[in-house]
Each structure stands twice: as C-alpha cells, then as structure tokens.
Design goal:
Elements (H helix, E strand, L loop, with lengths): L1 H15 L10 E5 L7 H7 L14 E6 L5 E15 L2 E13 L2 E6 L2 E18 L6 E21 L2 E16 L6 E9 L6 E5 L2
C-alpha cells in the first residue's frame, strides 16, 4: 500500500495543478538536505569509529518542475570506507536514495514556499574482516518525511533553500544479532546547511 501512495498523490496533484507555462518546466542539479535520517542510529551502532553517517546522505541529485506548482526531486548518496587499526579491519559500503515531491503553496518575491513530502531508502553493509570468515551486518532503511521549504531564487537559474519538518525512519539489520531502530522526530537546516539547485534546462 505504501508503494502506491507516492504515485497516487503525484497523479492527483498533476490533475489538479495549473497548466505549465514554457518557463515553468525548468530543471537542474542540486540537493535538498545534507543529512541522512540514518545518521543518528548508525553512528551509535556502527563498529567503524571513523564512519561519518552524514556522508551517505542523498546529496547528488536534482529537481524537475513538472508544472508551475508541482515538481519532482531525486537524490542519491554513496559511501565506501575501509578502516584498518592494528589487526582490526572494517569495511563499510552504503547507498541511499531520496525521492521528494515539492509542492509550491505560496509564491513570494523571489521565494517559493514549498510543502515537500518524501521517501528515503538506504542499504548499508558493515563488514568486520578482522577474523576469517568475516562477519557482515546489513542494514536496511525506510523513511518518510514531510516538511516546509523556503526556496530563494538568488539568481535567474540558481536557488538556495532551507527546510524543517518531521521524519519517520525504520532501520533494521540482518546480522548475527538482529537489531531494529524506529525513530520519529523533527528535522531542520539553517544557513550553514543550505540545499541548492542550479537550473540548467
């Protein structure tokens, strides 16, 4: 049922949205947020002291406006880490995805005030290669968020944005000892954590 929710919402919004003008169908590269919802739980349970979970955030992506009011965001994040400390050796591989649906609810002077629901998915492997055979723990993340974003058009084809909202995330492992974490909390970014979009087409 959850898998059908995002396409259904998108279809309803596209039907009810205003027809796009020629200048509304712009798109480009950028990212929305510099932090992954997995960062908190993963930093507490990972065996890699050098691991920075924020590096797995979906910070490579872009935004495409489909109409004058509704767009589509896509982001991907990737991290590969090998850590050797004496006889201890750990390997970490992770990838995350973020799909968002920015909806303009109010247009101001050079600012779009946006409501943005999104879905996050990630898969991560933590491999302890200190012993033979190695012990590998795999984590799977599923998350949903909804927030308000202010997108400021600082130039004709460049915007910066900040947002706050609410995120639910579930992180589960399939290692020798199963672990599951479920979190619900607020998120936010400030002027030191701005997202951006460069509209290239």
């Amino acid at each position: 049922m959850k898998k059908l929710a995002i396409p259904a919402v998108l279809a309803l919004l596209l039907v009810g949205a205003n027809p796009a003008q020629a200048g509304d169908m712009k798109g480009g590269l950028g990212f929305h947020i510099g932090q992954s919802p997995i960062a908190g739980p993963l930093s507490n349970i990972s065996t890699n002291d050098l691991l920075d979970p924020s590096q797995i955030a979906a910070t490579i992506g872009g935004r495409q406006w489909l109409t004058s009011q509704v767009g589509l965001d896509f982001g991907v994040g990737y991290l590969q880490l090998e850590a050797t400390q004496g006889t201890q050796k750990n390997e970490f591989n992770g990838v995350s995805f973020d799909i968002g649906l920015p909806i303009v609810i109010k247009k101001l002077d050079n600012v779009n005030f946006i409501f943005r629901p999104s879905y996050q998915y990630g898969t991560f492997e933590d491999k302890d290669a200190t012993i033979d055979p190695a012990i590998t723990t795999k984590f799977t993340l599923n998350g949903f968020s909804a927030g308000f974003e202010a997108e400021w058009m600082v130039a004709k084809s460049l915007s910066v944005s900040a947002a706050h909202g609410l995120t639910w995330a579930s992180l589960e492992s399939d290692g020798p000892v199963t672990q599951k974490f479920t979190s619900l909390g607020t998120t936010g970014s400030n002027f030191t954590q701005l997202g951006f979009n460069v509209y290239l087409w």
